[in-house]
Sequence to fold (277 residues):
Amino acid sequence: MNQIGIAVYNGKEYRKQIAFNRPFFPPYSSLFILKQGTISFERQLQFIKISEPVIAFIDHTVVYEFSEISDDTEAYIVSISKEFYENISLKFNTIKVFHFFKKQRGKHFFINQNQLDEFFTFAHLLETIIKNADLHQNINKLIEINFSGLVQLLISFIDKIDTFVHKTSRQEQIVLTFLQNVELYLKEEKKVDFYAKKQSITVRYLSQTLKQTIGKTGLEIITEFQLKEAMALLVDTEKNIKEIADVLKFSDSQTFSHFFKRLTGITPNQYRNHFSK
Fold:
């Protein structure tokens, strides 16, 4: 990422920014504009495979596990840093875009040729300006104007499709809400009872719905979320075991290490050392 806090990558360049076949936190939130190719990843128990032409959103606060960015991928990936996001003037529109995609939990949306051309035009212009930053005196202003244009295009797109988003069944909505709540409250709450109360349903009904829909109990899902986040923290940060245990709200490092080894068969340090070679 450059000092400006925004970058535009193609598929091959984005490969270098992420990890494959292991849980990790993406370094930045990103908008995928996919024209051709295939991208496959898992987002908190949800396997997603996208093919052209679509737009999708990658949230840097969520654990992902990428398995494929095909060689024939033709795409623009617009990545922004937290600092860039906090300093832009049209933050309200950007918040609306982020909130919409977060609410959809990684859902991707097909776009027609005209929409693809419009998204590609803005992304290409951003890429050109960033690559020639030294030639522009008011580079930050130019970038913000063009990024705001891209956001405005997204707002227009969202306003058109928001009312046409697939209507979920009661069971699907319970599952989606549970997964969203686990993402939000995992570090503070690990009991299924808490998540059942958030939806005003019984633990039994929540557990039955989860088991019938995705084949796992609430406790199994919470545990898997914890494990994947622990794996990402072990490899992508320099936090020691005690600090990671604190982040994940374990009572102490020994309890965390026992939890990790029980589920993986190896210690946290062994897992970290494996990926640091």
